[in-house]
Specification:
Layout: E1 2-8, E2 17-23, E3 30-40, H1 42-48, E4 68-75, E5 87-90, E6 93-95, H2 101-104, E7 115-116, E8 136-140, E9 145-146, H3 153-156, H4 162-172, E10 180-184, H5 188-199, E11 203-208, H6 214-220, E12 224-227, H7 231-235, E13 241-246, H8 255-258, E14 261-269, H9 281-285, E15 290-293, H10 299-312, E16 318-322, H11 326-334, E17 341-345
Parallel strand pairs: 10-11, 10-13, 11-12, 13-14, 14-15, 16-17
Antiparallel strand pairs: 1-2, 3-4, 3-8, 3-17, 4-5, 5-9, 6-7
Helix pairs in contact: 4-5, 4-10
The chain binds NADP nicotinamide-adenine-dinucleotide phosphate and zinc ion.
NADP nicotinamide-adenine-dinucleotide phosphate is lined by residues 41-43, 46, 161-162, 165, 185-190, 208-210, 213, 247-250, 252, 270-273, 294-296, 333, 336, 338.
């Protein structure tokens, strides 16, 4: 074991603060990374504040962070894909059983024995796993991703969660040229959703509660922007969408969006609000519409997404912050004041 610097919260009401944590020495299949950048996902905030306690309770102290890009510093004797000096990435998963039907199909995100990057039982050290708001991490090579060499690394980090979480359902539901696609909420996930829908050739409409994001939405690739609080603007799109991706982090009226789907249209929830959403049966029955959910993506698809981003020069729009500003960043997330992903420059942790 060795010690590494990190930021953790000790309770659901505590701010994140500097600490020291233990990491395992790399075993034969492990890759050790020196972390360069880590994105700030709204899921980090939900977890730190224990907002998902009805699904999974947070174990304190928590070290969040699952959008990790780093430089390989050490590899185990059986590692074949990475060597010291390589740039590599880690997302929301660091292990799974590898033997169940989900894992065999490349859907590690649905494995019942998965290990998340933070707040999952740690098979090696006991306690729970600790995430990317830290100087260094050790991960089984099966869960380490290759990073295209042409991309800005701060903008790559958010691809590991915001990127794959929006890419995967759009691929699954056949977002292509000729489809009319909505993206609800222009935050970290939403802005990646817009970029992917555009890259897949769809007609893209952004739904936002923030009128001042209109110009950005168009710049990011939207064909049209609807301020969702304006009922007339919403009504104009009734019954017209093939697919809508809902990335909203708080309770909101899902029926307003179900009613915008055409016959057999689908809305997929990736946003994970603390409180349940109310669904009207009629919004689904009328038009044989469907409502579904999606969880990040498996390792093969995450690599496919990163390679796609390399080919199409896609990265997240980031506001790079030192780790000392992370509590402020959380407050701004709650006000929908992020353009469009905070990304921590982990060099700032060295001065702690
Ligand atoms: P974010 O950057 O904070 O973006 C959320 C956006 O939702 C905001 O920018 C805002 O967009 C909109 N919004 C916020 N509060 C709202 C409200 N009360 N009513 C309507 N719209 C509101 O968050 P994120 O990192 O993109 O994450 C979004 C959600 O996805 C979170 O719940 C997160 O936990 C979840 N998530 C799920 C997965 C998965 O695998 N399913 C993966 C990652 C994250 P406008 O200003 O444009 O309205
Ligand atoms: Zn995330």
């Amino acid at each position: 074991m060795y010690n590494t610097k990190a930021y953790s919260a000790v309770s659901e009401t505590s701010p994140l603060a500097s600490t020291t944590i233990e990491r395992r020495e790399p075993t034969e299949h492990d890759v050790q990374l020196s972390i360069l950048f880590c994105g700030v996902c709204h899921s980090d905030l939900h977890s730190v504040r224990n907002e998902w306690s009805s699904f999974t309770s947070t174990v304190y102290p928590i070290v969040p962070g699952h959008e990790i890009v780093g430089r390989v510093t050490k590899v185990g004797s059986a590692v074949t894909k990475y060597q010291p000096g390589d740039i590599a990435a880690v997302g929301c998963l660091v292990d799974s059983d590898g033997t169940c039907p989900q894992c065999k199909a490349g859907f590690e995100q649905f494995c019942l024995n998965q290990t998340l990057t933070y707040n999952s039982p740690d098979k090696h050290l006991g306690g729970v796993t600790k995430g990317g708001y830290s100087d260094s991490i050790v991960v089984d090579e099966r869960f380490v991703l290759r990073v295209p060499t042409n991309l800005d690394l701060a903008g790559v980090a958010p691809l590991l969660c915001a990127g794959i979480t929006t890419y995967s359902p759009m691929r699954h539901w056949g977002v292509t040229k000729g489809k009319k696609v909505g993206v609800v909420g222009l935050g970290g996930l939403g802005h990646m959703g817009v970029k992917f829908a555009r890259a897949f050739g769809a007609q893209v409409v952004v739904f936002t509660t923030s009128p001042d994001k209109k110009e950005d939405a168009l710049r990011l690739g939207a064909d049209e922007v609807v301020v969702s609080r304006n009922a007339d603007e919403m009504q104009k799109h009734a019954g017209s969408f093939d697919f809508i991706l809902d990335t909203v982090s708080a309770k909101h009226d899902i029926n307003a969006y179900l009613n915008l789907l055409r016959r057999d249209g689908n809305i997929t929830l990736v946003g994970a609000p603390e409180k349940p959403l109310d669904v009207s049966a009629f919004s689904l029955i009328m038009g044989r519409r469907s409502l579904s959910g999606s969880n990040i993506g498996g390792i093969p698809e995450t690599q496919e997404m990163l390679d796609f981003c390399g080919e199409h020069n896609i990265t997240a729009d980031v506001e790079v912050i030192p780790i000392q500003k992370v509590n402020e960043a959380y407050e701004r997330l709650l006000k929908s004041d992020v353009k469009y992903r905070f990304c921590i420059d982990m060099a700032s942790l060295k001065s702690e």
